[in-house]
Amino acid sequence: MRGTRVGRKATGLIGIAAAAALALSACAGGGSTPPTAELSEDPVTLRFTWWGNDVRTAATEDVIAAFEAEYPNITIQPQFTDFGGYWDKLATETAANDSPDIIQMDEKYISTYGGRGALLALNELGDAIDLSEFPDSAISTGTMDGALYGIPVGLTSYSMMANPVLLAAAGVAMPDDESWTWDDLSEAGAAVSASGGGNVFGVQSWGFSDGDLKNFARQHGEDLYNDEGEVSVSVETLTEWWTYLKGMTTSGVTPPPSSTVEKQNAGLAESFTATNTAAFGPWWNSQLTALTDASGTPMELLRIPTTADAEEGSAYYKPSMYWSVSSRTEYPAEAALFLDYMLNTEEAADLLGTDRGVSANEKIRAYIEPNLSETDKAVVAFLDDLADVVGDAPALTPPGGSAVDSLLKQYTEQVLFGQATPAQAAEGFIKDLSASIAAA
Amino acid sequence: MSALGELRTIGHRKVAGSSKEKNENKAAYLFLLPWFLGLAIITVGPMLASLYLSFTKYNLLQPPEIIGFGNFERMLGDERLHNSLGVTFVYVFVSVPVQLGLALALAVVLNRGLRGLSFYRSVFYLPSLLGSSVAIAVLWKQVFGTQGLVNVFIGLFGAEGHGWISDPSTALSTLIILNVWTFGAPMVIFLAGLRQVPQMYLEAAEVDGASKWQRFLRITLPLLTPIIFFNLVLQIIHAFQSFTQAFIISGGNGGPADSTLFYTLYLYNRGFANFDMGYASAMAWFLLLIIGVFTAINFWASKYWVFYDD
Q: How would DSSP label each residue in A349-391?
């Protein structure tokens, strides 16, 4: 009697488990129905998610308002966070089949999401989005196996922000960025630190994002990933990179490790660059306006220093970010309409400026150039100047490679605090990143 | 009699089998139904799903693929996982004893019939309500930051400031202090226990010339052991599951240099940042095993030091 009762209970539980498993696989397998590209007359609500600073958020909300005024039946629900929290949230929402319709996508994640069916192939929408003004080289950075999973919003390049006020105060001349080397950077930085009295430093530490590493690797004729999606940077190059950073920290050119870690976690507005406490700082050039706003100092954009025997074409244009559409959206036509508005209209271009990078749309780029603010003009000029020396864009980050920033941060911290030698960090980093890619 | 003793007694009571009682049981089950549905849908269902997922490779976006014990084998060679276990053990086995010691000491002080007892009790209890919240973690980050209150305070004595949270040698300590600070919940339970120590034992001992300290050590403490045991089990389980504080204070990745990488935080990062949900599920079940083992050890050891006055 008792036995059967227990048995029945157990069967019930197995039933629940089976139902749960089914529900899970249903989530994962859904969204394969072909989208209809008809615009609806009824009220439509689209969810639109992005990460970014306050300047970006205000500009984006203005564009949404302008779009809604033109298309009264479409409502865009904004959803924004900082970069760190963004990806956890997007992963959870996507797994729960509750992804936002329009997604600001990053190079580190596009193969992860696109290659696994979470993003709509935008080239299948026909001519809903006009891409005629986008160069093929830009479109190809958002294309995987013939499917366009993301339209590059803008282009950026890695740069060194220089604070002219701090340099002048320390009596250091603005370096000539066409010829400067890493040694020049540490020399100029040392002079600033020496006159800064512990409050102002020469160089803001780096080593927390893949942009830092990719540029250095390319100067050594390597790349972080090869075309097969494997980690291809060498232990020697990584060791050299971390040895240089460690040397700068020991000699006081960069701030003490614990200040670096604290600022690193606090976001752009709290950074050494934005608080006028470091004369040089490595940033994507599109951040010039935000950093100038936050610091109140007109920053100057310099090219990244190189080694004396650096490889040609180590600099590259990176798509700052992409516009992607969820493969599970109910309204692909409306989502495409909104993207088309943001990418191709002059109204949107006026509002958005260059915060997401200099538009990859050549017509829009020519249109906005005369109306730009001083800093935005400098951002465009920096990219134009670089045109002669840039090489091909690096291979797309493979699925699983999104762990790269958190691994870099972990090993950079170990090096800065003396818990690992640069060589140990280099080996550990390559091993961990490879394992993460293999597990994906 | 202690709360735990009471529970034991209920467990020992014989269940009679009259038909009236059976009807009452049915009604009771009916009332339990909403709770049971919640348990099945929100707890048991996802747990079984995660058990299934722990034997799969599952990247959140594509259907899971069964790989047997592959995830568990990978755990053996995962150095970050081993490091995170070390961090978690230090956290649990330092913060819980200190927290309970403090809770007991304050409970004894408050039990002396202080004026305004309920006020003090509430004030001390407050941190346990707030301790694992995001707001407090953010506050903690400020208090122990380079420009924080702690540095301002020690600056008054001429000592040099320190980035407590951004230095790997002190970051975990700030989390331990945060957990110790939430001593209020065990303290309230201790207070309840102290109220149940029969006065006549203490009076008899006093007549026999026992000192205050002897009375505490020989009478109060042994009678309190079931409560201490109860708090110990509860707080150890609770500490193993800590997540929010480390997540907020380290900015989500257990830094600096993995010094605050709790096991739960690493699990979360594997699942949601690295899209390695099968592995994260396997880690979750391993955590359940660890907590189970330590709870079992606790119960086994309790035979040798816990005294039931019944």
A: HHHHTTTT-EES-HHHHHHHGGG--HHHHHHHHHHHHHTTT--
Read off the pLDDT band of B18 (50, 70, 90): low
Residues 233-272 of A with CB under 8 A from B: 256-262, 264-265
Claim to verify: residue A304 and residue A410 sit in the same structural domain: yes
Kindly state whether residue B194 falls inside one of the protein's structural domains.
yes
Q: Determine the pLDDT at residue B59.
A: 86
Q: Give the count of domains, chain B.
A: 1
Q: Where are the alpha helices (DSSP H) in B196-220?
A: 199-207, 212-215
A165 and A49 in a single domain? The answer is no
Any chain A CB within 8 A of the CB of B168?
Answer: yes
Q: Look up the CATH number of the domain holding residue A100.
A: 3.40.190.10
> Is A439 part of the contact surface with chain B (CB cutoff 8 Å)?
yes
User: What pTM was computed for the model?
Assistant: 0.82
Rounded CA separation A387/A396 (Å) = 21
Closest chain A residue to B248, measured at CA: A265
> Do the Cβ atoms of A258 and B256 come within 8 Å?
yes
Question: Per the domain annotation, does B59 fall within a domain?
Answer: no
Inter-chain contact B167–A28, Cβ cutoff 8 Å?
Answer: no
Domain that holds residue B89: 3-17+71-305
Nearest chain B Cα to A82, which residue? Answer: B251
pLDDT band for B309, please (50, 70, 90 cuts): low
User: What residue in A sits closest to B255 (Cα-Cα)?
Assistant: A410
Across the interface, of A29, A262, A432, the residue whose CB is closest to B166 is: A262
Backbone angles phi, psi at B309, to 5 degrees: -90, 60
**Structural domain harbouring A334:** 44-154+319-385
* Residue-averaged pLDDT of chain B: 87
